Amino acid sequence: xxxxxxxxxxxxxxxxxxxxxxxxxxxxxxxxxxxxxxxxxxxxxxxxxxxxxxxxxxxxxxxxxxxxxxxxxxxxxxxxxxxxxxxxxxxxxxxxxxxxxxxxxxxxxxxxxxxxxxxxxxxxxxxxxxxxxxxxxxxxxxxxxxxxxxxxxxxxxxxxxxxxxxxxxxxxxxxxxxxxxxxxxxxxxxxxxxxxxxxxxxxxxxxxxxxxxxxxxxxxxxxxxxxxxxxxxxxxxxxxxxxxxxxxxxxxxxxxxxxxxxxxxxxxxxxxxxxxxxxxxxxxxxxxxxxxxxxxxxxxxxxxxxxxxxxxxxxxxxxxxxxxxxxxxxxxxxxxxxxxxxxxxxxxxxxxxxxxxxxxxxxxxxxxxxxxxxxxxxxxxxxxxxxxxxxxxxxxxxxxxxxxxxxxxxxxxxxxxxxxxxxxxxxxxxxxxxxxxxxxxxxxxxxxxxxxxxxxxxxxxxxxxxxxxxxxxxxxxxxxxxxxxxxxxxxxxxxxxxxxxxxxxxxxxxxxxxxxxxxxxxxxxxxxxxxxxxxxxxxxxxxxxxxxxxxxxxxxxxxxxxxxxxxxxxxxxxxxxxxxxxxxxxxxxxxxxxxxxxxxxxxxxxxxxxxxxxxxxxxxxxxxxxxxxxxxxxxxxxxxxxxxxxxxxxxxxxxxxxxxxxxxxxxxxxxxxxxxxxxxxxxxxxxxxxxxxxxxxxxxxxxxxxxxxxxxxxxxxxxxxxxxxxxxxxxxxxxxxxxxxxxxxxxxxx
Length: 750
Ligand code: GLC
What we know:
This protein is α/β, with parallel strands linked by helices. Among the domains are: about 305-520 and about 525-535, Glycoside hydrolase family 3 C-terminal domain (Rossmann fold, 3-Layer(aba) Sandwich), CATH 3.40.50; about 550-670, Sandwich (Immunoglobulin-like), CATH 2.60.40.10; about 685-750, no CATH class. It has 22 helices and 27 strands. A hairpin with a 2-residue loop joins strand 7 and strand 8. Helix 11 (about 300-315) packs across helix 15 (about 475-485) and helix 12 (about 360-370) runs parallel beside helix 15. The longest helix has 21 residues, at about 270-290. The radius of gyration is 29 Å and the shape is globular. The protein starts with a helix and ends with a helix.
């Protein structure tokens, strides 16, 4: 391939090479038939193909060809099912092949810094490990069909407010441990054909013009081999972007970008080699796509619909089941309340919008599944306005009163879960909250089904016996909801994001969405459960939480080593048993805690998870392999991941707040951190250094103190005393000759 590429590139004119680095129309690259270079199509989206045949836009306004609408990432992530996510990716790839699309613009793997972000429905999690693991599988699935993925939005694109201009200011450790980690794992595991550069800046530099981000980290450090495509309209200075490693500008800029590149090359500001590298990366993907085209490809829309239903059922989270109100019997008098019952929300708004091949309806799915039951319906609220409609409320109370159980569908109207806007609060529309309160006055058996793209507050929590978090479950979500409500499916989803009690509890509450064109991530690594754990705030529902119609018992935690070096791995095993009379799937979570850290770290961090299927009474062994990265933090001096020698805890949980088993392990670092001592180092900084020990002992003796005593002046303890004396004090007080001080420093820094 290399030889072929070099031959083609050397035969191309400068203008032809430049033209290849800019899109044609909204979705295509240029065709150069003289060099047998075909045009390829790149189009959305993460949970369904959005291919436009007519008017083209990148905000989901104009129609697209029918395609399967799968659950959006927010819900799919709650399946914690790597294989399922890969299977959805395979189906997406099949549909791309059938529609002649070569690159699918997804998955989105940005971290959920705040539940207010309008695009959270398109993203997996608040946790980078869970997010990167599922992202990798999504990419593998799509690319297994000979279609490229486009991992987006790289990087730190965690809000919609001012996204085109926003400068995200954050420290290196937070960037690495939280926001880049979500991409890193996916790129190393799945090697996406393309990565999409985000609109925003990071610490003052646009992502699409960020050499450190695109060349140094993405390519040099992580080994990314594909090409970088801009988000649509995300390029400002095209020549700067090309130099920084941003290969393909989308959509085309009507020659403006190309002109800037040509001018930069002609006046010597940009080398033709840089252009050739970008052209080579783009051609590599184009030819790979061309080789993988499956002519006359087709897919089975019914099979994909069934997969969408399976995925939706595994993604839904049973949050409450008081008095085991669920599963419902398929008989009796059932009230179905809420406009979403007949007009469901199943996806978000914006560039990810899919034109579904079909769309199930909750009212029909539920009534058809429980044919012996008597149903009454009430709209309850308007979808056009959040205003309360008393007649609708009264009608809902009436049907609820005449029934044995009331199922109420609520959720976020489309204007809340949309690309381009963020929410201002976490509330459901007022007319929905009031409806629930009103129905609770006449009916105590209430089941709430929530259709939303991100966490919501639940002021009526104690008024409902059952709560099913259905997220935006795609075109088959209604069937999946009916399967769960009536017990044909046992719910197995667990939350991939924290549901906070209220907005002011969220870690980014003060700094979201920032001021004007700047937002500071002052919460650092304390995103999601990392924050709630550290400051000991009780969430409404914790990360990793979800109920089942059965129960599971965890036992026999064991490690194959109780002490390892940071270059070894520890094998962790435990047993999980299904204690109930229903088959089910359980998500077992592994967290790591650093018990002796000298840097500020979260209380615990997710570093493993497995989803296992168990028949009633069945017990299985679950195994985790835990290596260096599970214990490491990003050391900014070392500019690498570093494990500090000491004791760690490995915690096995049913959720981040329900730790069932734990044990400790010692990890020894094989990396020596080279400290740099200066005149501003204190005696406390050097007290354990072999060269300094006698010097400090003599000093203490001269003060009438020995190594063991703690009675320093003013009642100071010894450590505080040593940390209050800088080496510079000896210079300024002339208590030590200058050359002796320099000798000491030299010895310390050898
Ligand atoms: C949008 C989105 C991106 C999408 C692209 C093409 O603005 O940010 O996710 O893939 O444009 O529609």
